[in-house]
């Protein structure tokens, strides 16, 4: 996985992402959860992330792009092509702002019982038999160790470092770190053909913005309309289509390109989950934080390669349906999607193929939970953020029930 990457920040993907929050569909949906429960959690996740399909209604030519794609992909049994659901707030003056950790947290950091420890690394979950008692931490600047006592512990540190911390803590279910899933990614670009452009479409690239907008203030230029070709079981790919403010390659001299007429296409395919695709940890070597060094075993199966070939053919057709392709599609190196999943996957039973139960509680523990993309158990092609947050909602509500003193979740899971 040559393009594997991790980041250290408050908010995880919320610190750097495209804000795409599509819902999974068909066989992307986790079958370990009651569909009604998952629907409620998805709706709550959309509220927390401020998901909208109207952020780019003003984007030039977005209707033309979606109409061209719809002619090519829409079928009676598929979700239709349309605007990408994105985590973006539309202000009263029309300004667009990405959803980030501050939006999701709201007044959380102002509450007296909540503390955010910046510059602090968790080194180990402390336990007494099957129950966590807290977390061993270290101050990055000073190296001073410390202990945080807790009634329950939730580890949500991405698909690489969540299993790393659990491994370092001696919490090692058989599936820990296994079933690593990175969505193969194919990229292409095209210039929207004039036949799709409505008469009188502006050539001027200026887009009105309020006088209050300032560079770096968090506002988004509404040029880059984002469209969506949803996943379907009969075409197991997810398409993210972005209109760009500039071409990624030189254009023919004299070609007049309107705002939104250069279109970038990104197709994601499902990755076949296998236990041998994994992140594992070298106890003989440590990383910069003193944790076992991360190692990755990962390969594309014959089924994965066939899916990539099919997606490459399809994205070529999509680029041609839009207009003039800009070069040939290309496959990004493994790890490029940053949509890492599966390493602490959810499952219905403690049978060695999952790390946690449908509430996110780790098998063999009574109060240790996991969250993040790594909990997603199914092979998906769509952006995983909304699904991960929905699963987090389920975990948070289950944990709140337990901490309120009702029947323990370990009993509920076995009832």
UniProtKB/TrEMBL annotation:
Q: Which GO terms describe its molecular function?
A: flavin adenine dinucleotide binding; oxidoreductase activity, acting on CH-OH group of donors
**What does the record give as cofactor?**
FAD
| Entries under Gene3D superfamilies matching the protein | FAD/NAD(P)-binding domain
Q: Which InterPro entries match?
A: FAD/NAD-bd_sf, GMC_OxRdtase_N, GMC_OxRtase_C, P2Ox-like
Query: What range(s) does the Glucose-methanol-choline oxidoreductase C-terminal domain occupy?
Result: 283-392
Q: Tell me the domain of life.
A: Bacteria
Record key words, sorted? FAD, Flavoprotein, Oxidoreductase
Q: Which residues form the Glucose-methanol-choline oxidoreductase N-terminal domain?
A: 110-184
Per the similarity annotation, which family is this?
Belongs to the GMC oxidoreductase family.
PANTHER family per the UniProt record, alphabetical: PYRANOSE 2-OXIDASE
Q: What is this protein called?
A: Choline dehydrogenase
